[in-house]
Amino acid sequence: AIRLILEQKRVAFEKSLVNPIHQDFVNGMLQFYTHDPDLKPQPGAEALFEQLQDQGVLVALNTGFSRDIAAVIINRFQWLERGLVQAFIGSDEVSQGRPHPFMIEELKKRLGLSSADLVAKVGDTVVDVEEGRNAGCALIIAVTTGSASLAELELAGPTHIVHNLSEIPALLHNTSPVHASEEG
Known about the structure:
By secondary structure, the protein is an alpha/beta fold. Helices cover 42% and strands 11% of the residues. The chain has eight helices and five strands; from the N terminus they run αααβαβαβαβαβα. The protein starts with a helix and ends in a 13-residue tail after the last helix.
């Protein structure tokens, strides 16, 4: 990503600097996610995880972050220890990240799932939606709480769009595509 950004900005750089710049970025992210006092889960995330656990739904997380950064966040919130999350994966654990399906495919293996018909992909970006489609997920739920606009998410073609995480459990029991209203 660093190399691509520099090339897009037409910045002259020595290729040998890319890895040290990346390592500095990772170290900064690790420090931030380990120590920032304002770091909190997305509003409603833990309540959603608890409700899904109560319904017998396995929760697995995937991220564009590397595993070490994801582990710091998940460990800080104690999601594995509290049983809120059963598995997670970082983009550095597969050959290609989103929009490719490899993180979802690996999580299916880790959780013993044989079919994408058993998977609901939830995300707040266009590449999340594309990843879910590329993996053949039964449900692809876009959440409007991220950086993508409602229009961008609609164009990506999820099976559902929600405006609040609390809307998700009901969708797991309804397989027909339903988009939440803008009022949420």
